[in-house]
Every structure is written in structure tokens, then in C-alpha cells.
């Protein structure tokens, strides 16, 4: 049994900006990980003042999981001090692509499957922050990571909302929230992309419907599959 998982990035809300005299230039980096795949993205810079918000309204993950666990890491930066982010945008995107590969190569996806994801979360977060800070002295205004269980989803999609908040606004000097929507469903689709036949399609015997079209265990009656 696999899980189809979709993560929708909704919006960011700035309750308190970090910059004293100007608006923040908010840059968001996200990663989504299941035991089958990983996706790391750098999102467009947004100018935000206290009390303002920006709507992303885009899907940042659409894939499968065999284990009912989803890993999320969100990093937000105020990049208003200089233009290094803009000047090095391609390098940063290359670095996130490399990080995505590292997640897969170093077995962090396996950590998600076994429930031991602290290594993935901590190592990925530290590596990304070190990489970005080495290029700039930007302030981290959001550093959030979580393992989310995928409970239910039998027969119909299940959706829930996630709010990633600045953990200690007083220490950071800023207060942000990023809102996401997670939708998942238990499915007979295999994680390699093949899909099974639906029972409604096969009430009447059809020559094109055979065991190779179905996913799951076959029961036997009198020694023959049924």
C-alpha cells in the first residue's frame, strides 16, 4: 500500500519584520521528504512589512510514500542587507539541487521510513544555513522542521493544514508564519508510477484485465487465484 502525497505552499505572513528602517526581503527555502523522494526549492524573494503577507499558491511536492511519514523543513531569511542573494541565485539553486541529491545518497530518506529522521533534519538544516551564511550575512527569521504522520486516507483524500512559525520571535527579532496544506491518500498505485485497475472497471470480465493489472495479494480458492 502506497501513499500519494501533495504539499501545497499557501502563504507567508509577516507579523513583525526584522529590519528596523526598511521592509524585509523575505527568501524561503523548502524541502519535502518521504521515504521515496525529496524535493528542495528556493522560492522568489518577497518584500514584506509588519502586518503584510504574500500568497505563493503553488504545489511544492506531488509524489509517493511507502511509509506514512512526511518530513518538512522550512528556512526563511531576511536578505535586505545586500544583493548577494540576487547575484548568486543560480549558485544557491545549484546548491539546493546538490542538497536534494545528498538527501537521497546519504540515506536520509531511509531515516524517514524508519522514523529516525533527526539526522536528516539536523544535518540538512545546518548544511543549508552554513552554505547561505557563508555567501551572505543574512538573518534567519524562520528555522522550522517537523515529521508529520499520515494517518487515515482510506478511500478518500485527507487534508490538513500546517503552520510553520518563528520559534522564538524575541530572540530572532522577527515573527513569521508560513502556511501549507498537505493532502494524502492511501492508494493502490505503486510508488514507481504504475497504477492498478479499479474494481468498478472489472465487474464484467474483460480480456484486458489480468493479475498484472492489480496490486495487492491474491487469495486462492481450490488452488486457483480469485
Describe this structure as you would to a colleague:
With 226 residues, this protein is α+β, with helices and mostly antiparallel strands. It has helices at residues 84-87, 89-105, 108-114, 118-135, 169-172; strands spanning 2-16, 24-33, 38-42, 46-48, 52-65, 69-78, 139-149, 158-165, 175-187, 220-221, 224-225. The strands form 3 sheets. Strands 2, 3, 4, 6 and 7 form a 5-stranded antiparallel β-sheet that branches. Strand 2 and strand 3 (38-42) form a beta hairpin. Helix 2 runs antiparallel to helix 4. The longest helix has 18 residues, at 118-135. It is globular, with a radius of gyration of 21 Å.
Gist of the model:
It contains five helices and eleven strands, in the order E-E-E-E-E-E-H-H-H-H-E-E-H-E-E-E. It has 226 residues and is of the alpha+beta class.
Poorly predicted residue ranges: 196-205, 217-221
Beta-strand percentage? 35-45%
Topology order in helix (H) and strand (E) letters: EEEEEEHHHHEEHEEE
Overall geometric form: globular
- The structure class reads alpha+beta
Q: What's the number of extended β-strand segments?
A: 11
Q: What is the makeup of the main sheet? A: 5 strands, antiparallel
**Total DSSP helices:** 5
| Beginning-to-end CA distance, first to last residue | 20 Å
- Radius of gyration over C-alpha positions, nearest whole angstrom: 21 Å
Portion of residues within helices: 10-25%
Mean pLDDT: 75
Amino acid at each position: 500500500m502506497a501513499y500519494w502525497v501533495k504539499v501545497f505552499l499557501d502563504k507567508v505572513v509577516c507579523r513583525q519584520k526584522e529590519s528596523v528602517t526598511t521592509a524585509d526581503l523575505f527568501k524561503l527555502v523548502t524541502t519535502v521528504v518521504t521515504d521515496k523522494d525529496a524535493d528542495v526549492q528556493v522560492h522568489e524573494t518577497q518584500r514584506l512589512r509588519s502586518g503584510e503577507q504574500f500568497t505563493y499558491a503553488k504545489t511544492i511536492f506531488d509524489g509517493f510514500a511507502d511509509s506514512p511519514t512526511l518530513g518538512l523543513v522550512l528556512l526563511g531569511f531576511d536578505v535586505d542587507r545586500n544583493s548577494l542573494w540576487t547575484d548568486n541565485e543560480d549558485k544557491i539553486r545549484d546548491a539546493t539541487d546538490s542538497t536534494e541529491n545528498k538527501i537521497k545518497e546519504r540515506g536520509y530518506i531511509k531515516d524517514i521510513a524508519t522514523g529516525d529522521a533527526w539526522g536528516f533534519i539536523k544535518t540538512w538544516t545546518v548544511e543549508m544555513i552554513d552554505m547561505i551564511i557563508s555567501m551572505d550575512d543574512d538573518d534567519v527569521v524562520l528555522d522550522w522542521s517537523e515529521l508529520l504522520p499520515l494517518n487515515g486516507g482510506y478511500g478518500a483524500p485527507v487534508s490538513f493544514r500546517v503552520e510553520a512559525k518563528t520559534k522564538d520571535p524575541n530572540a530572532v527579532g522577527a515573527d513569521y508564519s508560513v502556511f501549507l496544506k498537505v493532502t494524502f491518500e492511501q492508494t493502490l498505485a505503486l510508488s514507481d508510477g504504475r497504477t492498478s485497475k479499479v474494481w468498478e472497471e472489472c465487474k464484467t470480465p474483460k480480456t484486458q484485465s489480468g493479475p498484472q493489472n492489480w496490486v495487492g495479494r491474491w487469495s486462492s480458492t481450490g488452488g486457483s487465484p480469485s
